[in-house]
Amino acid sequence: MTTDTSKAIVATEEYERERVPESKLKSWKSFLGMYAGEHAAGTEFVIGPLFLTTGVSAFDLLVGLFLGNLMAVICWRFLTAKIAVDQRLTLYYKLEKICGKNLVTFYNIANGILFCFLAGSMITVSATAIGIPFDIPMPKLDDTMPNGITWIIIVLVIGAVISLIAARGYATVSKVANWLSPFIVLAFIACGVVALGQLDISTFKEFWNIWGSGSEPFPGQIKYTFWHVFLWSWFCNAAMHIGMSDLSVFRFAKKASSGWTTAAGMYVGHYIAWIAAALLYAVYLQSPEALGILAEGEAPGVAPGPLAYNAIGVFGIIAVVIAGWTTANPTIYRAGLAFQAIIPKASTFWVTILAGGIATIAGIFPAFAMKLLGFVALYGFILAPVGAIIVFEYFFAKRFGVEEDYAEKAGISFNISVLLAWGISFGLFYFISLSQGVFLSFLTLPAWLLCGVLHLMISKYIQKRKSK
Fold first, then answer.
1. Is the Transcription regulation keyword given for this protein (predicted)?
2. How far apart, in whole angstroms, are the C-alpha atoms of residue 408 and residue 414?
3. Tell me: the pLDDT tens digits for 228-268?
4. Cβ(158)–Cβ(127) under 8 Å?
5. Residue 290 burial (CB < 10 Å; 0-12/13-18/19+)?
6. Which of helix, strand or coil describes residue 26?
7. Which domains does the chain have, with CATH numbers?
8. Ordered DSSP codes for 137-170
9. How far apart (Å, rounded) are the C-alpha atoms in residues 106 and 386?
Protein backbone atom coordinates (compact mmCIF):
# COMPACT_ATOMS: atom_id res chain seq x y z
CA MET A 1 0.00 0.00 0.00
CA THR A 2 1.34 3.46 -0.94
CA THR A 3 0.50 6.90 0.34
CA ASP A 4 -0.69 9.74 -1.88
CA THR A 5 2.68 11.44 -1.41
CA SER A 6 4.65 8.43 -2.59
CA LYS A 7 2.35 8.12 -5.61
CA ALA A 8 3.08 11.73 -6.52
CA ILE A 9 6.80 11.14 -6.24
CA VAL A 10 6.61 8.10 -8.51
CA ALA A 11 4.40 10.00 -10.97
CA THR A 12 7.01 12.74 -11.33
CA GLU A 13 10.14 10.52 -11.39
CA GLU A 14 12.26 11.98 -14.18
CA TYR A 15 15.55 10.02 -13.85
CA GLU A 16 17.47 13.26 -13.39
CA ARG A 17 20.73 11.58 -12.35
CA GLU A 18 20.68 8.26 -14.22
CA ARG A 19 20.04 6.83 -17.65
CA VAL A 20 16.41 6.57 -18.66
CA PRO A 21 15.46 2.85 -18.46
CA GLU A 22 14.34 1.01 -21.59
CA SER A 23 10.84 0.54 -20.16
CA LYS A 24 10.27 4.31 -20.14
CA LEU A 25 11.27 5.03 -23.74
CA LYS A 26 8.72 6.63 -26.05
CA SER A 27 7.99 6.36 -29.78
CA TRP A 28 8.35 9.20 -32.27
CA LYS A 29 4.62 9.96 -31.96
CA SER A 30 5.13 11.33 -28.45
CA PHE A 31 7.65 13.88 -29.71
CA LEU A 32 5.63 14.81 -32.78
CA GLY A 33 2.78 16.14 -30.66
CA MET A 34 5.06 17.91 -28.24
CA TYR A 35 7.07 19.75 -30.88
CA ALA A 36 4.01 20.63 -32.94
CA GLY A 37 2.34 22.01 -29.82
CA GLU A 38 5.41 23.78 -28.47
CA HIS A 39 6.36 25.55 -31.68
CA ALA A 40 2.90 26.23 -33.12
CA ALA A 41 2.43 28.39 -30.10
CA GLY A 42 1.45 31.68 -28.57
CA THR A 43 4.78 33.33 -29.31
CA GLU A 44 4.19 32.67 -33.03
CA PHE A 45 1.38 35.23 -32.82
CA VAL A 46 4.06 37.77 -31.80
CA ILE A 47 6.98 36.71 -34.01
CA GLY A 48 5.02 36.70 -37.29
CA PRO A 49 3.92 40.33 -36.93
CA LEU A 50 7.38 41.39 -35.76
CA PHE A 51 8.78 40.22 -39.11
CA LEU A 52 6.50 42.74 -40.81
CA THR A 53 7.82 45.53 -38.57
CA THR A 54 11.37 44.84 -39.82
CA GLY A 55 10.51 45.66 -43.45
CA VAL A 56 11.58 42.24 -44.75
CA SER A 57 10.96 41.31 -48.41
CA ALA A 58 8.82 38.37 -49.61
CA PHE A 59 11.79 36.34 -50.89
CA ASP A 60 13.88 36.97 -47.79
CA LEU A 61 11.03 35.94 -45.50
CA LEU A 62 9.64 32.89 -47.31
CA VAL A 63 12.93 31.37 -48.50
CA GLY A 64 14.94 32.45 -45.46
CA LEU A 65 12.43 30.84 -43.09
CA PHE A 66 12.33 27.62 -45.10
CA LEU A 67 16.10 27.14 -45.14
CA GLY A 68 16.72 28.36 -41.60
CA ASN A 69 14.15 25.96 -40.16
CA LEU A 70 15.64 23.12 -42.21
CA MET A 71 19.05 23.72 -40.62
CA ALA A 72 17.48 23.69 -37.16
CA VAL A 73 15.81 20.31 -37.83
CA ILE A 74 19.10 18.85 -39.08
CA CYS A 75 20.85 20.00 -35.89
CA TRP A 76 18.17 18.40 -33.72
CA ARG A 77 18.35 15.12 -35.63
CA PHE A 78 22.10 14.61 -36.04
CA LEU A 79 23.44 16.36 -32.94
CA THR A 80 20.87 16.56 -30.13
CA ALA A 81 18.86 13.38 -30.71
CA LYS A 82 21.93 11.31 -31.59
CA ILE A 83 23.78 12.18 -28.38
CA ALA A 84 20.61 11.98 -26.26
CA VAL A 85 19.70 8.46 -27.41
CA ASP A 86 23.26 7.24 -26.93
CA GLN A 87 23.76 8.62 -23.41
CA ARG A 88 20.17 9.16 -22.12
CA LEU A 89 21.10 11.83 -19.58
CA THR A 90 19.68 15.28 -18.92
CA LEU A 91 21.71 18.22 -20.15
CA TYR A 92 22.36 19.23 -16.56
CA TYR A 93 23.70 15.89 -15.31
CA LYS A 94 25.84 15.53 -18.45
CA LEU A 95 27.34 18.98 -17.91
CA GLU A 96 28.00 18.17 -14.27
CA LYS A 97 30.14 15.22 -15.40
CA ILE A 98 32.14 17.53 -17.70
CA CYS A 99 32.21 20.81 -15.78
CA GLY A 100 32.04 19.80 -12.14
CA LYS A 101 29.32 20.49 -9.60
CA ASN A 102 30.33 24.04 -8.69
CA LEU A 103 30.78 25.34 -12.23
CA VAL A 104 27.63 23.77 -13.63
CA THR A 105 25.61 25.43 -10.88
CA PHE A 106 26.22 28.84 -12.47
CA TYR A 107 25.10 27.52 -15.85
CA ASN A 108 21.99 25.90 -14.39
CA ILE A 109 20.96 29.12 -12.69
CA ALA A 110 21.40 31.14 -15.90
CA ASN A 111 19.74 28.47 -18.03
CA GLY A 112 16.77 28.09 -15.69
CA ILE A 113 16.19 31.83 -15.38
CA LEU A 114 16.39 32.41 -19.15
CA PHE A 115 13.89 29.60 -19.73
CA CYS A 116 11.62 31.19 -17.12
CA PHE A 117 11.78 34.54 -18.92
CA LEU A 118 10.95 32.81 -22.20
CA ALA A 119 8.00 31.01 -20.61
CA GLY A 120 6.95 34.32 -19.11
CA SER A 121 6.61 35.84 -22.58
CA MET A 122 4.26 32.97 -23.48
CA ILE A 123 2.15 33.65 -20.41
CA THR A 124 1.98 37.28 -21.55
CA VAL A 125 0.69 36.09 -24.93
CA SER A 126 -2.11 34.06 -23.34
CA ALA A 127 -3.01 37.01 -21.12
CA THR A 128 -3.62 39.24 -24.15
CA ALA A 129 -6.41 36.84 -25.17
CA ILE A 130 -8.04 36.44 -21.76
CA GLY A 131 -7.85 40.21 -21.29
CA ILE A 132 -10.21 40.87 -24.24
CA PRO A 133 -13.49 40.26 -22.34
CA PHE A 134 -12.20 42.53 -19.56
CA ASP A 135 -11.44 45.29 -22.09
CA ILE A 136 -7.98 45.93 -20.65
CA PRO A 137 -5.41 48.00 -22.58
CA MET A 138 -3.07 45.74 -24.56
CA PRO A 139 0.75 45.97 -24.34
CA LYS A 140 2.48 48.11 -26.95
CA LEU A 141 5.81 47.37 -28.63
CA ASP A 142 7.68 49.68 -26.26
CA ASP A 143 5.83 48.72 -23.05
CA THR A 144 7.83 47.26 -20.17
CA MET A 145 5.52 47.52 -17.14
CA PRO A 146 2.05 46.01 -16.46
CA ASN A 147 -0.87 48.31 -17.15
CA GLY A 148 -3.14 47.49 -14.23
CA ILE A 149 -4.22 45.08 -11.49
CA THR A 150 -6.55 43.15 -13.84
CA TRP A 151 -3.62 42.30 -16.10
CA ILE A 152 -1.58 41.07 -13.11
CA ILE A 153 -4.42 38.84 -11.82
CA ILE A 154 -4.93 37.27 -15.27
CA VAL A 155 -1.21 36.50 -15.59
CA LEU A 156 -1.09 34.97 -12.08
CA VAL A 157 -4.00 32.62 -12.82
CA ILE A 158 -2.57 31.49 -16.16
CA GLY A 159 0.88 30.98 -14.63
CA ALA A 160 -0.53 28.82 -11.82
CA VAL A 161 -2.30 26.48 -14.25
CA ILE A 162 0.73 26.15 -16.53
CA SER A 163 3.08 25.50 -13.60
CA LEU A 164 0.92 22.69 -12.23
CA ILE A 165 0.85 20.93 -15.62
CA ALA A 166 4.62 21.25 -16.08
CA ALA A 167 5.27 20.00 -12.54
CA ARG A 168 3.54 16.70 -13.31
CA GLY A 169 6.54 15.69 -15.42
CA TYR A 170 7.39 14.94 -19.04
CA ALA A 171 4.63 12.38 -19.55
CA THR A 172 1.94 14.91 -18.63
CA VAL A 173 3.56 17.68 -20.69
CA SER A 174 3.66 15.35 -23.70
CA LYS A 175 0.02 14.25 -23.27
CA VAL A 176 -1.24 17.83 -23.03
CA ALA A 177 0.69 18.76 -26.19
CA ASN A 178 -0.72 15.77 -28.10
CA TRP A 179 -4.27 16.62 -27.09
CA LEU A 180 -4.08 20.31 -27.93
CA SER A 181 -1.65 20.65 -30.85
CA PRO A 182 -4.20 19.69 -33.57
CA PHE A 183 -6.54 22.42 -32.29
CA ILE A 184 -3.75 25.02 -32.35
CA VAL A 185 -2.61 24.09 -35.86
CA LEU A 186 -6.19 24.34 -37.10
CA ALA A 187 -6.52 27.76 -35.47
CA PHE A 188 -3.40 29.12 -37.18
CA ILE A 189 -4.54 27.84 -40.58
CA ALA A 190 -8.00 29.34 -40.00
CA CYS A 191 -6.47 32.69 -39.04
CA GLY A 192 -4.35 32.70 -42.20
CA VAL A 193 -7.28 31.82 -44.47
CA VAL A 194 -9.55 34.45 -42.91
CA ALA A 195 -6.81 37.09 -43.11
CA LEU A 196 -6.29 36.34 -46.82
CA GLY A 197 -9.99 36.96 -47.37
CA GLN A 198 -9.90 40.21 -45.38
CA LEU A 199 -6.96 41.36 -47.51
CA ASP A 200 -8.83 40.41 -50.73
CA ILE A 201 -5.99 38.10 -51.78
CA SER A 202 -6.86 35.46 -54.36
CA THR A 203 -3.56 34.84 -56.20
CA PHE A 204 -0.02 33.97 -55.17
CA LYS A 205 1.21 37.23 -56.68
CA GLU A 206 -1.09 39.24 -54.42
CA PHE A 207 0.10 37.17 -51.46
CA TRP A 208 3.74 37.83 -52.44
CA ASN A 209 3.06 41.57 -52.65
CA ILE A 210 2.20 41.77 -48.95
CA TRP A 211 5.96 41.90 -48.36
CA GLY A 212 7.01 42.67 -51.95
CA SER A 213 10.59 43.90 -52.24
CA GLY A 214 10.61 45.03 -48.62
CA SER A 215 10.15 48.38 -46.95
CA GLU A 216 11.64 50.60 -44.30
CA PRO A 217 11.43 49.11 -40.80
CA PHE A 218 8.95 50.49 -38.29
CA PRO A 219 10.19 52.99 -35.68
CA GLY A 220 12.48 51.30 -33.16
CA GLN A 221 13.03 48.19 -35.34
CA ILE A 222 16.05 47.15 -37.45
CA LYS A 223 15.94 46.21 -41.14
CA TYR A 224 15.92 42.44 -41.81
CA THR A 225 17.53 40.89 -44.88
CA PHE A 226 17.63 37.24 -46.06
CA TRP A 227 20.54 36.52 -43.73
CA HIS A 228 18.74 37.99 -40.73
CA VAL A 229 15.74 35.73 -41.37
CA PHE A 230 17.80 32.63 -42.23
CA LEU A 231 20.13 32.84 -39.25
CA TRP A 232 17.50 34.00 -36.77
CA SER A 233 15.12 31.14 -37.68
CA TRP A 234 18.03 28.67 -37.47
CA PHE A 235 19.26 29.89 -34.10
CA CYS A 236 16.10 31.13 -32.36
CA ASN A 237 16.04 27.68 -30.74
CA ALA A 238 19.83 27.37 -30.57
CA ALA A 239 19.73 26.64 -26.85
CA MET A 240 17.56 23.59 -27.56
CA HIS A 241 19.46 22.02 -30.49
CA ILE A 242 23.13 23.05 -30.75
CA GLY A 243 22.92 24.15 -27.11
CA MET A 244 21.86 20.57 -26.22
CA SER A 245 19.01 21.55 -23.89
CA ASP A 246 16.78 18.99 -25.62
CA LEU A 247 19.03 16.17 -24.47
CA SER A 248 16.60 16.26 -21.55
CA VAL A 249 13.69 15.60 -23.94
CA PHE A 250 15.17 13.16 -26.48
CA ARG A 251 16.71 10.94 -23.78
CA PHE A 252 13.24 9.36 -23.71
CA ALA A 253 13.31 8.57 -27.47
CA LYS A 254 13.64 4.98 -28.69
CA LYS A 255 15.62 6.06 -31.76
CA ALA A 256 17.58 9.12 -32.85
CA SER A 257 15.31 9.35 -35.89
CA SER A 258 12.72 10.85 -33.50
CA GLY A 259 14.72 14.05 -34.01
CA TRP A 260 12.97 14.47 -37.36
CA THR A 261 9.72 15.15 -35.49
CA THR A 262 11.02 18.64 -34.78
CA ALA A 263 10.07 19.43 -38.39
CA ALA A 264 6.44 19.43 -37.23
CA GLY A 265 7.26 22.36 -35.00
CA MET A 266 9.47 24.14 -37.49
CA TYR A 267 7.24 23.99 -40.56
CA VAL A 268 3.82 24.06 -38.94
CA GLY A 269 4.84 26.52 -36.26
CA HIS A 270 7.87 28.45 -37.44
CA TYR A 271 6.69 28.64 -41.04
CA ILE A 272 2.93 28.37 -41.50
CA ALA A 273 2.09 29.92 -38.11
CA TRP A 274 4.53 32.83 -38.46
CA ILE A 275 3.22 33.65 -41.91
CA ALA A 276 -0.42 33.33 -40.78
CA ALA A 277 0.26 35.66 -37.84
CA ALA A 278 1.97 38.14 -40.16
CA LEU A 279 -1.18 38.14 -42.31
CA LEU A 280 -3.28 38.96 -39.24
CA TYR A 281 -1.02 41.92 -38.55
CA ALA A 282 -1.23 43.01 -42.19
CA VAL A 283 -5.03 43.19 -41.77
CA TYR A 284 -4.64 45.29 -38.62
CA LEU A 285 -2.20 47.67 -40.34
CA GLN A 286 -4.99 48.68 -42.73
CA SER A 287 -7.26 49.74 -39.86
CA PRO A 288 -7.79 53.45 -39.04
CA GLU A 289 -6.28 52.87 -35.59
CA ALA A 290 -3.02 51.44 -36.95
CA LEU A 291 -2.76 54.04 -39.71
CA GLY A 292 -3.17 56.78 -37.10
CA ILE A 293 -0.40 55.29 -34.93
CA LEU A 294 1.94 55.04 -37.93
CA ALA A 295 1.16 58.64 -38.88
CA GLU A 296 2.40 59.68 -35.42
CA GLY A 297 5.72 57.92 -36.08
CA GLU A 298 5.08 54.99 -33.75
CA ALA A 299 4.78 51.22 -34.34
CA PRO A 300 1.31 49.68 -33.87
CA GLY A 301 1.08 47.00 -31.17
CA VAL A 302 1.25 43.28 -31.90
CA ALA A 303 -0.92 41.92 -29.05
CA PRO A 304 -1.86 38.38 -30.21
CA GLY A 305 -5.26 38.16 -28.51
CA PRO A 306 -6.95 41.02 -30.39
CA LEU A 307 -5.33 40.00 -33.71
CA ALA A 308 -6.72 36.44 -33.48
CA TYR A 309 -10.08 37.63 -32.12
CA ASN A 310 -10.53 40.03 -35.04
CA ALA A 311 -9.99 37.12 -37.43
CA ILE A 312 -11.88 34.17 -35.94
CA GLY A 313 -13.67 35.50 -32.87
CA VAL A 314 -13.89 33.53 -29.64
CA PHE A 315 -12.14 30.58 -31.33
CA GLY A 316 -9.13 32.91 -31.73
CA ILE A 317 -9.12 33.80 -28.02
CA ILE A 318 -9.16 30.11 -27.04
CA ALA A 319 -6.41 29.32 -29.57
CA VAL A 320 -4.08 32.03 -28.25
CA VAL A 321 -4.59 30.94 -24.63
CA ILE A 322 -3.94 27.26 -25.39
CA ALA A 323 -1.02 28.07 -27.69
CA GLY A 324 0.66 29.94 -24.85
CA TRP A 325 0.07 27.02 -22.48
CA THR A 326 1.51 24.33 -24.75
CA THR A 327 4.74 26.27 -25.23
CA ALA A 328 5.18 27.42 -21.65
CA ASN A 329 4.61 23.88 -20.29
CA PRO A 330 7.77 22.22 -21.71
CA THR A 331 9.78 25.42 -21.21
CA ILE A 332 8.97 25.51 -17.49
CA TYR A 333 9.64 21.76 -17.36
CA ARG A 334 13.16 22.39 -18.72
CA ALA A 335 13.70 25.24 -16.25
CA GLY A 336 12.59 22.96 -13.40
CA LEU A 337 15.18 20.36 -14.42
CA ALA A 338 17.85 23.08 -14.39
CA PHE A 339 16.95 24.12 -10.84
CA GLN A 340 16.61 20.50 -9.72
CA ALA A 341 20.18 19.85 -10.87
CA ILE A 342 21.34 22.55 -8.43
CA ILE A 343 19.49 20.98 -5.49
CA PRO A 344 19.28 17.29 -6.49
CA LYS A 345 17.62 16.21 -3.22
CA ALA A 346 14.67 18.52 -3.84
CA SER A 347 11.47 17.20 -5.39
CA THR A 348 11.26 17.81 -9.14
CA PHE A 349 7.62 18.78 -8.60
CA TRP A 350 8.43 21.65 -6.28
CA VAL A 351 11.42 23.02 -8.17
CA THR A 352 9.22 23.08 -11.29
CA ILE A 353 6.60 25.00 -9.32
CA LEU A 354 9.40 27.43 -8.39
CA ALA A 355 10.32 27.80 -12.06
CA GLY A 356 6.68 28.41 -12.90
CA GLY A 357 6.50 31.10 -10.24
CA ILE A 358 9.50 32.94 -11.72
CA ALA A 359 7.99 32.62 -15.21
CA THR A 360 4.69 33.99 -13.98
CA ILE A 361 6.36 37.03 -12.43
CA ALA A 362 8.23 37.61 -15.71
CA GLY A 363 4.93 37.31 -17.60
CA ILE A 364 3.54 40.30 -15.73
CA PHE A 365 6.05 42.49 -17.58
CA PRO A 366 5.26 42.65 -21.34
CA ALA A 367 8.80 43.67 -22.33
CA PHE A 368 9.88 40.02 -22.76
CA ALA A 369 7.12 39.37 -25.32
CA MET A 370 7.27 42.70 -27.13
CA LYS A 371 11.08 42.44 -27.63
CA LEU A 372 10.96 38.73 -28.43
CA LEU A 373 13.15 38.76 -31.57
CA GLY A 374 16.03 40.39 -29.72
CA PHE A 375 15.55 38.42 -26.49
CA VAL A 376 15.47 35.03 -28.24
CA ALA A 377 18.61 35.91 -30.21
CA LEU A 378 20.40 36.85 -26.97
CA TYR A 379 19.28 33.79 -25.03
CA GLY A 380 20.41 31.45 -27.82
CA PHE A 381 23.74 33.25 -28.08
CA ILE A 382 24.39 32.87 -24.33
CA LEU A 383 23.45 29.20 -24.00
CA ALA A 384 24.40 27.66 -27.35
CA PRO A 385 28.21 27.66 -26.89
CA VAL A 386 27.90 25.44 -23.81
CA GLY A 387 26.32 22.78 -26.02
CA ALA A 388 29.44 22.85 -28.21
CA ILE A 389 31.42 21.47 -25.26
CA ILE A 390 29.20 18.36 -25.21
CA VAL A 391 29.16 17.98 -29.01
CA PHE A 392 32.92 18.37 -29.48
CA GLU A 393 33.67 15.95 -26.64
CA TYR A 394 31.24 13.38 -28.05
CA PHE A 395 32.59 13.47 -31.62
CA PHE A 396 36.25 14.50 -31.22
CA ALA A 397 37.54 13.83 -27.68
CA LYS A 398 39.11 10.43 -28.42
CA ARG A 399 40.63 11.66 -31.67
CA PHE A 400 42.34 14.55 -29.85
CA GLY A 401 43.33 12.48 -26.83
CA VAL A 402 41.00 14.31 -24.44
CA GLU A 403 39.37 12.55 -21.50
CA GLU A 404 35.55 12.74 -21.62
CA ASP A 405 33.53 13.66 -18.52
CA TYR A 406 36.78 14.87 -17.00
CA ALA A 407 35.36 16.49 -13.85
CA GLU A 408 33.66 13.27 -12.79
CA LYS A 409 36.69 11.07 -13.50
CA ALA A 410 39.20 13.47 -11.95
CA GLY A 411 36.99 14.19 -8.95
CA ILE A 412 37.04 17.97 -9.43
CA SER A 413 34.16 20.40 -8.92
CA PHE A 414 35.34 23.16 -11.26
CA ASN A 415 36.68 22.42 -14.75
CA ILE A 416 38.51 25.60 -15.74
CA SER A 417 38.72 24.62 -19.43
CA VAL A 418 34.94 24.91 -19.75
CA LEU A 419 34.82 28.36 -18.19
CA LEU A 420 37.71 29.64 -20.32
CA ALA A 421 36.26 28.23 -23.55
CA TRP A 422 32.82 29.74 -22.93
CA GLY A 423 34.13 33.01 -21.51
CA ILE A 424 36.53 33.70 -24.40
CA SER A 425 34.05 32.79 -27.14
CA PHE A 426 31.13 34.64 -25.55
CA GLY A 427 33.18 37.69 -24.60
CA LEU A 428 34.87 38.04 -28.01
CA PHE A 429 31.75 37.80 -30.15
CA TYR A 430 29.53 39.78 -27.79
CA PHE A 431 32.11 42.58 -27.91
CA ILE A 432 32.00 42.42 -31.72
CA SER A 433 28.21 42.65 -31.61
CA LEU A 434 28.23 45.69 -29.32
CA SER A 435 31.13 47.56 -30.90
CA GLN A 436 30.25 46.88 -34.54
CA GLY A 437 26.45 46.72 -34.24
CA VAL A 438 26.33 43.13 -35.57
CA PHE A 439 23.05 41.23 -35.06
CA LEU A 440 23.68 38.45 -32.51
CA SER A 441 22.28 35.65 -34.68
CA PHE A 442 25.14 36.30 -37.13
CA LEU A 443 27.61 35.44 -34.37
CA THR A 444 25.97 32.43 -32.69
CA LEU A 445 27.59 29.80 -34.93
CA PRO A 446 31.13 31.31 -34.78
CA ALA A 447 30.88 31.54 -30.98
CA TRP A 448 29.64 27.93 -30.81
CA LEU A 449 32.48 26.60 -33.00
CA LEU A 450 35.15 28.59 -31.16
CA CYS A 451 33.91 27.39 -27.78
CA GLY A 452 34.07 23.73 -28.86
CA VAL A 453 37.57 24.05 -30.33
CA LEU A 454 38.91 25.99 -27.34
CA HIS A 455 37.48 23.42 -24.93
CA LEU A 456 39.36 20.58 -26.64
CA MET A 457 42.60 22.57 -26.86
CA ILE A 458 42.56 23.81 -23.26
CA SER A 459 41.40 20.42 -21.93
CA LYS A 460 44.24 18.62 -23.69
CA TYR A 461 46.79 21.07 -22.27
CA ILE A 462 45.43 20.86 -18.70
CA GLN A 463 44.98 17.09 -18.71
CA LYS A 464 48.50 16.58 -20.12
CA ARG A 465 49.97 18.73 -17.35
CA LYS A 466 47.97 16.89 -14.67
CA SER A 467 49.09 13.49 -15.94
CA LYS A 468 52.74 14.57 -15.67
1. no
2. 10
3. 999 999 998 898 899 998 998 899 999 999 999 999 889 98
4. yes
5. middle
6. strand
7. 29-379 (1.10.4160.10)
8. PPPPTT--S---HHHHHHHHHHHHHHHHHHHT-H
9. 12
